[in-house]
Amino acid sequence: MDIDLLRAVTAELQQCLTGARFDKIYQPEADLFIFRLWNGRDSLRLLVSPSPRFPRLYLTTQAFPNPGAPPRFAQLLRARLSRLVRIEQVPEERIVHFHCTGPQGEAYLLALELLGRRSNLLLVDEQGTIVDLWERDKCENTLRDLRPGQPYGLPAPRQVQGGQGRPMAETGNAGSPSTVAESYYRQLLVDADEVGEQKQLLRLVERRLTRVRGRLEKIRAEQQALAATDRWRELGELLLANLYRIKRGQAEIQLEDYYQEPPRPISIELDPRLTPAENAERYFRRYKKGRRGAEHIARRLAETAEETAWLETVQHALRQAQEPVDVVMIRGELEEAGLLPSQGNLAKRAPVDPRSRLRSTLSPGGYRIFWGRNNRTNDYVSRELAEAADWWFHAKDLPGCHLVLKVWRKDEDVPEEDLLYAAALAAGYSRGAEAGKVEVMVTRAAEVRKPKGAPSGLVQVRSYRSVRVEPKKLPEP
User: Fold this and answer.
1) Which of 295, 321, 350 is the last residue of a domain?
2) Is pLDDT above 60 for 165?
3) What are the distances in angstroms from CA 81 to CA 95, 101, 124, 223?
4) Residue 475 belongs to a domain
5) Same structural domain for residues 53 and 81?
6) How far is CA 79 from the centre of its chain?
7) Residue 440 and residue 424: Cα distance in Å, rounded?
8) Residue 17's pLDDT is what?
9) Which of 117, 166, 268, 413 is buried most, with the most CB atoms less than 10 Å from its CB?
10) Spatial contact of 95 and 89, defined as CB atoms under 8 Å apart
11) Which domain holds residue 371?
12) What phi, psi does 395 have (nearest 5°)?
């Protein structure tokens, strides 16, 4: 983190966090801590990251998941820190000291060292002894002994200059130092494929999609191969109708095929070892076997098509995810589906309330519109939020959001302008967002149902009308 930006952020934190109370401390990712503090007026979230690649510090507006079981160091900080007394930056160093007090008034120093590969976060007691630290092996290749029980000392002074192409210079007067830093690092993390597990999960889903689509093509080929199943029955019936003309020992017989229009001669293969009736039965057995195979193939085809549609919705949600909490929800969905092993109790994350992740706006006529960000929030929109008389929208044959326009009265006529506005949003938050026009299904929520056992985000629509609209997206806050 650029030292000039760090200096500006530290000054901002001194103003708004001095004397603040620690309400919650959690660690949503391995190298990321969130401190929620109350300063007597506002509840603020402080992002602290000793990441070796992108060490950073600023107030954040992002929502991060709170793991159910805190990792070791986060659990220690929860137990030891009660109030933030003052904040100071070590002169000309990328090191910030948070002077704190504990539950009994005891003094602690939380030292954040943003030193690239040597970045770390340390808790020091009032005697200056290291209680514990985030990364215990960071003492390697340094001149300091950074281990619990050892005295804490600063690294040797060194000349530090402001970086080139600094975020403050790039964004100008774009807001507070924290706003500048958050905007800069959010884009930097996206460009570097460092937004949580997003890229890793996306690659997993895309590999799975490739396999499932290949399986789908094979099943369709098998289905085409069985398309002649009914023909076996027709040949058996032709033989039955002409048993008196067939002699045992014949290898084939010429008959009139009255299933053709107009009827024409056909040569039917026979087994010379069988009687005429047994030859007819042989074709009926082929027909019955084909029918059983066709039913099995139809079932496999439906299941594979459903899995393909579900994976495409997960892929779309991952591509659209902008905050780690949304990626966490998708990971949970993949774990439940068996595509990922569960991370176990230590890494289990608290469930995310889907209501907290909805998007919403007002239509031109003032109707409230809600839509989901992923399959779980889509399920909530369609199954819990929507009432029978509400209007429901979804891009036709494309992965995207479930969108609902809430009505005030069951029997009211919603203006077409409002319906088309909602349809445009449904198109804008679908895979067709970049298309000129997108076909969108419009129906009452009463026409939408979720089949028993269907994956998250998949529903059946009994009836609907279609509109073609230009996709619309709202500006990101």
Assistant:
1) 350
2) no
3) 19, 6, 11, 66
4) no
5) yes
6) 33
7) 8
8) 96
9) 268
10) yes
11) 354-469
12) -60, 130
